[in-house]
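Technical annex, item 7. During the second reporting period the consortium partners agreed on a shared format for inverse folding records so that results from different sites could be compared directly. Each record opens with the tokenized structure and is followed by the designed sequence. A conforming record, contributed by the partner at site C, is shown below for reference.
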């Protein structure tokens, strides 16, 4: 934030909105001693909300004509189930993987949907609460889109990696998977073992990093664009340029919000599909 007595600049505004409510300050790109409380809190809250919505749909399901909510959940369930059948060949594995994929889709959709809230709504309420508690409101940082936090998206992708490793061992056995690590993709020859193992590790790392980075990059860009649109509204004044910026704020915000509904849905679907694909690959033998 700007120093006391100075006007808030556009850069100050963006930096403040992109700063987490966290424990201390990161000492480098990776610092496991820092916890982003806002991302964790919103992730848990929306995860509970998503599970409650699915539970409500399941517990209230009827054999007769379904209501709109039940019909929507059934359509979503059938979509995920059909995708899982086409990607994961093992029926026993699908008993866990299909519900997991459904949960992943709903959870990430809800996390992404936080980007549709007015950018100043929750941060302003948080500042008021911070000030009411006797703290300096200028340091009341809050980010409300968990999937615009790289630590959250990489945590999700690491969870998928762990699931893939578990299924590799479960389907192929520890010995069979260990043999595959050194025998594929170049062939089962002792001279090729180091190259095969290196390629396997690179593949696991690349899939995990790209899985998390893709979601983070899209949501971070969307969050930043909403902030830039909000700055247009903040420049409103009773002048020709000020009125033009105010109208541009309304028009651009409306168009981007409508388009962003497609983005947040697509990103949740892509993350779910890649989860199914990676788990399906764990069932393949070379």
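Designed sequence (site C submission):
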């Amino acid at each position: 934030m700007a120093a006391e007595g100075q006007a808030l600049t556009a850069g100050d505004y963006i930096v403040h909105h992109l700063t987490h409510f966290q424990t201390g300050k990161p000492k480098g790109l990776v610092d496991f001693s820092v916890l982003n409380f806002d991302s964790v809190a919103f992730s848990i809250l929306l995860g509970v909300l998503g599970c409650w919505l699915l539970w409500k749909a399941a517990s209230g399901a009827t054999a007769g004509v379904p209501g709109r909510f039940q019909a929507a959940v059934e359509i979503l369930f059938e979509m995920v189930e059909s995708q899982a059948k086409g990607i994961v060949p093992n029926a026993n594995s699908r008993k866990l993987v299909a519900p997991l994929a459904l949960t992943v889709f709903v959870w990430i959709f809800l996390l992404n949907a936080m980007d549709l809230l007015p950018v100043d709504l929750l941060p302003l309420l948080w500042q008021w609460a911070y000030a009411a508690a006797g703290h300096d409101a200028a340091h009341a940082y809050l980010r409300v889109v968990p999937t615009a936090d790289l630590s959250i998206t990489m945590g999700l992708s690491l969870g998928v990696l762990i699931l893939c490793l578990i299924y590799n061992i479960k389907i192929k056995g520890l010995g069979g998977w260990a043999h595959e690590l050194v025998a594929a993709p170049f062939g089962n020859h002792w001279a090729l073992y180091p190259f095969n193992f290196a390629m396997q590790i690179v593949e696991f790392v690349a899939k995990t990093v790209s899985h998390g980075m893709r979601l983070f990059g899209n949501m971070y860009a969307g969050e930043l664009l909403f902030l830039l649109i909000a700055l247009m509204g903040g420049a409103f004044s009773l002048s020709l340029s000020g009125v033009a910026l105010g109208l541009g704020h309304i028009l651009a915000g409306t168009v981007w919000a409508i388009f962003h509904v497609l983005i947040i849905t697509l990103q949740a679907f892509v993350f779910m599909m890649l989860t199914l694909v990676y788990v399906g690959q764990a069932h393949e033998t070379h």
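Residues 232 and 249 are 5 Å apart (CA to CA). The chain is about 70% helix and 0% strand. All partners now use this format for quarterly exchanges.
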